[in-house]
Amino acid sequence: MSDKHKSESISRRDFVVLSGGVASAMAFPAILTSRKALADPTELNLLAWYGHGEPDVVSEFEATHNVKFKPKYYAGGDNMLALIAQSPPGTYDIILSDSEFVQQLNEAGFIENLNPEDYPFDDFIHDDFRNFPGHWRDGNLYSVMVRFGHLGVAYNRNTISEEEASSYRCFWNSKLTGKVGHFDWHLPTLGMMSLYNGNSQSPFDLDGAAWDEVKKTTMSLRPQVGGFFDYGGTFNSLKNGEMLAMCGIGDWITGVLEKDGAPVTSVVPEEGGIQWTESYCIGKDSKRADIANRFIQYMLSPYGQVRSAEMAAYPAFCVTKAGQAELRKVNMAEAERTGQVPGAANNPVTLIEEGRIHYRDIPRQQSLEDWNDFWSEYKNA
Amino acid sequence: MRRDRLVTWLLRIYLALIFLFVFVPIATSMVFSFNSDRFPSLPLGGFTWHWYDMVYKDPDTWEAIRTSLLVALTSSVLATFIGFCTAYTDFRYRFRFKGAYLALALLPPTIPLIILALAMLAWFSKIGISGRVGSIIVAHTVLCAPFAMAVIRLRLQQMDRDLESAAWNLGANELAAMRHVVIPFTLPSIISALCLTMAVSFDEFMIAWFVSGLNKTVPVMILEILQGNVDPRINAIGSFVFAVTVTLVVVAQLLFSAKTTTTRS
Amino acid sequence: MKPRHNMDIYALTWRLPVLVWQTLFFIAPLVFMIAMSFFLVKNYRMVEAFELVNWMKMFSRDYFWDSYVLSLGLAALATICATALAFPASYALAFMVSDNIRRWAIFFLIIPYFTSYLVRIFSWYVLLAEAGIANGVLGYLGLGPFTMLNTAFATIVGYMALTLPLVVILQTLSMANIDRSLIEAAHNLGAGRLRTIVSVVVPAGKVGLIVGALFCFILSFGDFVSPYYLGGSKPPTLTILITDTTKSGQQWPRAAVVAVTMMATLMVIAYSAIRYAYNRRQP
After folding, report:
1. What domains sit in chain A, N to C, each tagged with a CATH number?
2. Among A147, A63, A118, A64, which Cα is nearest to A289's?
């Protein structure tokens, strides 16, 4: 009995030592993180396409406002919505959204109301951009457009001539069998197929018959396809010649490669091109909404617009006239390459006015799920 | 006999080819980490430290390394503790459902990581612990504990069962015997389990990618570069990670073989 | 021998940690995932429910079954390749080198598992590209160039990078433990090398061969990186389907359906393999 008692007292002491060890192991992370929290600048959580939180875009803003961006990158609007939905409210301070998804962000209550007077709407280069679909609701502003670009035929100039590339038909060219790549997202590719089918009024507003036709057209492209790629894969395959044409992208990829000396380029074909549009929103319940708003203003300033236009990850057009002017001042070559000079044939505003550009949208008569589902089917075909 | 020799030589060449297959990608990665071209291709461009410099100057890399080290250290301690307990239980006790008990202890590495990742993220969000550095630690402990258990169990196998009972007969209680006999005997394997589990955690990206939220570990950062702006930083970071983990493994291995010599005495 | 009955505090202290931890953070997630496969998704948010709709939806899709068959086929092919490619190497390591060299060889085979798998796959991407190093070497020999990236071949190469060293290790360890006198006896009875391998080495090393093959199957079946980055997801495997499904609008329940199906498949295969390995095992 006494022996038992003795052993218990010792074992209790040993137990304390042991649990102390475990407890300090558990506390270890807390020690490290709390020390860090004292020294570091405010952290700003950004949810965006790849590249928006990289130093070439944000480092100056970080320095002047003593903030540190913590980016999380997504690929595609559905992916973005899924990421927000699975994190607690208030996780993301700034959300860069594809414009066509702003409406859904709003309906799901993921974003904050904005004050229109904070932004240079008067200076926007096109009327549509001030009042982009879904950005306003009941007279309240929820999102501001910051940049945009065009999607069309992206191709290798050594294989395909500009003339051949002037129609989506070139994707079916026998020179490209097994060499057509897809950016792995349904919306841009299916939009192009829809345009190719002649749905030029509203490529994303398809009735049952037109949707069936789009599916059929898309399926007929499948034998040409060499692979499905994320951003990095798209890049590499075009650069190393693994893929000779790419469906679902535009200058946002080829522009970077072109600057790097690769023989690739993008054109808006005769059936029309698709415009991708990116807008900033402030995440619901963000504790740093104030600084987030200042960042949005920064990106809309002429200087910020140039940062966006010259972004290392992927270039875009400026949305403000002052931004365009600034770009012409600091980088005339890039302004000319992208048609952001008065009178250029490929001037983005001119193209819109000629009716050759269609804003990318979510499917109007089908659900996103239907399109996703078809995309899975297509990849498996 | 001449034919035998020929076969022997052919097999040796074959063996060399297998090792070539295993090490060519590692060597390639190191070579390209010093190559100036942004997109790796032949012929090689010039020699450069640029990618290392870029990685070195990028605060995000250091943040990721800090996170990775924190995760690896903490989860290796927890996993080794759990692994030790399990190994000792298996060594010393017999009880009902021991088979099921051991299955539970050893099963995690046989479940594909992507499935574990999906399940853990869903469960962690459900109980409210997702998106933190702690989530990765918890998940990695699950994954690493079986490895620690295996390493320590092997060492216990070499321990004379009478050693512990001799200590009891000399009047030591169980904990004292544990402290003075079992732990000293297994110490090399404990350290080697720590190194091994740290290395496993330091390289795991699937679960970390799913459950980490905004906290990137080094492998998650590599994955994001691969998905995003692919450049030879991957190779630079990879070579660095290689150096770290190989050091850990070498330490583990040295301690493990040091043990084999002492056992025989 | 045992100083006390089993159920004392001391014994529990050692027994409980793994039970508690793995139940909370390993079993619970897997059980929850099974439950999740019956949940619904409304407005990008999961709603707890008990509906069969996700199962019906996935099981009624041709692409799901196509991916299923493809993933099984690719993993099986990888298993055959790895087992066949590893065997001569393991044989050489088990019977033709000294203990010391074998130890070092195994050590070097472990090393790749401590380099980033992603980095190695990226290296293979560079090596296998049309203008890559592999084609450069082949061109030197007057062959090629071959299209290797974005094909099943590249996926299998990736699987080999993942599994081959492990398979060699497991095979070597099991063969090195074979009683040498068995082999000598076979030689004395006049059996040639090949006969000895077929009738002595393979049966005696059966467990290692099967466990190696099983690990290769599990790892390949569950890998997402090779088929995505080397195979160009053309066509996609179940693992790619899982990531695609989680990406597209929070369809976690459907991803769970895929994951649960994969797990069930693996359990059946692992159970049969283990039974086969230990069944009718002759000394």
Report:
1. 3-142+277-338 (3.40.190.10), 149-272+356-380 (3.40.190.10)
2. A118
Contact predicate B212/B135, CB 8 Å: yes
Span B205-230, pLDDT tens digits: 999 988 888 888 999 999 888 888 77
- Chains near B with 3+ CB pairs less than 8 A apart are A, C
- CB atoms B229 and A240 under 8 Å: no
- Residue A46 in contact with residue A21, Cβ under 8 Å? no
Does A29 sit within 8 Å of B137, measured CB to CB? Answer: yes
Neighbouring residues of B115: CB distance < 8 A, sequence distance ≥ 6: C33, C222, C242, C259, C262, C263
Radius of gyration of chain C (CA): 23
The token pair that represents A373 in the structure block: 């589902």
Nearest to B25 by CA among C226, C123, C125: C123
Mutate to test the interface with A, among C126, C245, C247 (most CBs of A within 10 A): C247
- How far is it, in rounded angstroms, from Cα A76 to Cα B228? 13
Residue C124, Cβ density class (10 Å: 0-12 exposed, 13-18 middle, ≥19 buried): buried
Side chain identity at residue C241, one-letter code: L
User: Are the CB atoms for C233 and A184 separated by under 8 Å?
Assistant: yes
Residue B241: HSE in the Cβ half-sphere, 13 Å Cα cutoff: 41
- Regarding an ipTM greater than 0.85, the answer is yes
Nearest to C156 by CA among B239, B219, B21: B21
Cβ(A57)–Cβ(A307) under 8 Å?
A: yes
Contact C21, B141 (CB under 8 A): yes
According to DSSP, the residues that pair with A96 across neighbouring strands are A280
Q: Where are the alpha helices (DSSP H) in B93-217?
A: 98-106, 113-127, 133-157, 161-169, 174-177, 183-203, 206-211
Domain boundaries, chain C: 1-36, 52-278
* pTM for this prediction: 0.88
> Collapsing DSSP states into helix, strand and coil, what is residue A189?
helix
pLDDT, one tens digit per residue, over B94-126 is 888 999 999 999 999 889 999 999 999 999 988
CA distance C140 to chain A (A): 20
Q: Do A377 and C62 touch (CB under 8 A)?
A: yes
Q: Which position has the token pair 């990879």? A: B238
Q: Which two tokens stand for residue C125?
A: 């991407």
Nearest-CA neighbor of B184 among B214, B164, B207?
A: B164
Give the Cβ contact number of residue B184 at 10 Å.
10
State which fold the C52-278 domain adopts.
MetI-like fold (1.10.3720)
Quick count: other Cβ atoms within 10 Å of Cβ A109?
11
Q: Does C263 touch chain B (CB under 8 A)?
A: yes
Q: Report the phi/psi class of residue A261: left, alpha or beta, with left for phi > 0 and alpha for psi in -120 to 50.
A: left
| Identity of the residue numbered A163 | E
Is it the case that residue A4 has pLDDT exceeding 70?
no
Q: What is the pLDDT of residue B181?
A: 87
Evaluated on CA atoms B60, B62, B65, B69, the torsion sign reads negative
Residues with Cβ within 8 Å of C245's Cβ and at least 6 positions away in sequence, in order, are C251, C252, C254, C255, C258
The single-letter code of the amino acid at C49 is A
- Rounded CA gap, C255 and C233, in Å? 17
